[in-house]
Amino acid sequence: MWEFIYRVLGKDSTGGSRHFAKERLRLVLVHDRATISPYLMNKLKEDLITVIKNYMIIDEAEMEVHLDEDDKEVALIATIPVKQIRRDYHEQVQASL
């Protein structure tokens, strides 16, 4: 009975417009976090390559990096073909000291 009265008066028991406003704001924030300039994405890719090359030999030409977003979060997705694992990294570090 109360739900009917709330509906007639424009009040929704689920939060109504307040709920939808929060949801819209959340979606805008997720989208804003997913927006990144091509320069910044390229710089991120270069930095990843620099670090990963210490541990692995990779196929840089086939490497893919992008942001993936859904309703709740943004994820950095990196597909990096590994040609070989560097087993000599520890020795390289010790030699440089």
Notes on the structure:
This protein is an alpha+beta fold. The protein has one domain (22-95): Cell Cycle, Chain A (2-Layer Sandwich), CATH 3.30.1070.10. 52% of the residues lie in helices and 20% in strands. The chain has helices at residues 2-9, 16-34, 38-52, 89-96, and strands at 56-58, 64-69, 74-79, 82-85. The strands form two sheets. Strands 1-4 form a two-stranded antiparallel sheet. A hairpin with a 4-residue loop joins strand 2 and strand 3 (74-79). The N and C termini lie far apart (78 Å). The relative contact order is 0.12.
Short description:
This protein has helices at 2-9, 16-34, 38-52, 89-96, and strands at 56-58, 64-69, 74-79, 82-85. The protein is an alpha+beta fold.
